Amino acid sequence: MKDRNELDVITEKLIEAYPDARCALTHQNAFELLIATVLSAQCTDVRVNKVTPELFCRADTPQEMEALGYDGLYELIRTCGLADSKTKNILSLCRKLTEEFGGEVPSTMEELTSLPGVGRKTANVVLANAFGVPTIAVDTHVFRVSNRIGYAEASDVLKTEKQLMEAIPRDRWILMHHVLITHGRRICHARKPECPACCIYEECGFDNKTTQGEQTE
Ligand code: SF4
Q: Which of 182, 187, 207 to mutate to test ligand 1, by most ligand atoms within 8 A of the CB atom?
């Protein structure tokens, strides 16, 4: 892992490179963000954003969502994939929101992860983007990119999250989650990262950086 001074340089360079980095899931409130994040599991944000306008037009509260029933909800979210389990989880979590949280999305990790289909990553996304709680949600992009760069040296997402929180100033956590995702989508791809075009090429600790020749194959 790199030292804090090196990582501070990398953090500022990445933030400067992606001034447009922000939550890519369209939402108007905590409930919409929670549902959109559940739908985004193994699905692209672009696809989720195509589905949610009609979904939220039909149902924008836990009660309305539950009233859609299995068939109604399944049909609306079918194209997001894993529709059976997502439908069941959303209906269950809406029931729990109504029965235990007064129809409101809770704002603690413990409460959020008590909801069906809501894991630590989804809870962190909601905490950060709906409630402004400093967190770093570790998805597939954040995991890959932060371990390549040298923010983390970890084999699982929980250790990666902890190391990221030590490596990045707290007031940058929420922003850096979006920045690392954006960097992973645009440059530091899973299969063939565009290292020659990378703004932190010199600083990055990845052992298998690609070369110009590989990019033009
Ligand atoms: S140099 Fe390559 S591996 Fe390192 S962050 Fe940039 S694109 Fe990713």
A: 187
Please identify, among 131, 156, 179, the residue that sits at the C-terminal boundary of a domain: 131
Q: Could you say which of 139, 156, 162, 209 is catalytic?
A: 139
Burial 119-147 (b: 16+ CB within 10 A, else e): ebbbbbbbbbbbeebbbbbbbebbbbbbb
Ligand 1 and 150: CB distance under 6 A: no
pLDDT digits (tens, 9 = 90+) for 71-98: 999 999 999 999 999 999 999 999 999 9
Backbone φ and ψ of 81, nearest 5°? 80, 160
Structural domain for 63, as ranges? 30-131
Q: Check whether residue 125 and residue 141 sit in a common domain.
A: no
Q: Which of 121, 156, 171, 209 is catalytic?
A: 121
Q: Does 8 participate in catalysis according to the annotation?
A: no
Q: Is the CB of 10 under 6 A from ligand 1?
A: no
Q: The whole model's pTM is what?
A: 0.91
Give 117-169 pLDDT, tens digit per residue.
Answer: 999 999 999 999 999 999 999 999 999 999 999 999 999 999 999 999 999 99
Per-residue pLDDT of 188-206, as tens digits, reads 999 999 999 999 999 999 9
